[in-house]
Amino acid sequence: xxxxxxxxxxxxxxxxxxxxxxxxxxxxxxxxxxxxxxxxxxxxxxxxxxxxxxxxxxxxxxxxxxxxxxxxxx
Length: 74
What we know:
- The structure is a single chain.
- The protein has a four-stranded antiparallel sheet with strand order 1-2-3-4.
- It is built from one helix and four strands.
- The radius of gyration is 14 Å and the shape is globular.
- By secondary structure, the chain is α+β, with helices and mostly antiparallel strands.
């Protein structure tokens, strides 16, 4: 069985954007970079030098659609 290999994604060309619904009040916001080939990166807008999560476009789309349809509401 071949082991899965995790490799770092080069985010040097990432163009980050914050939701237009995010205020400037220091709240809990994320930034998304959707301009990377075959990847969507997400980071904490308050810690831009911190770690990022990287998804495939299909994974990101499934997450966003689940949020929109209320899957994660308590």
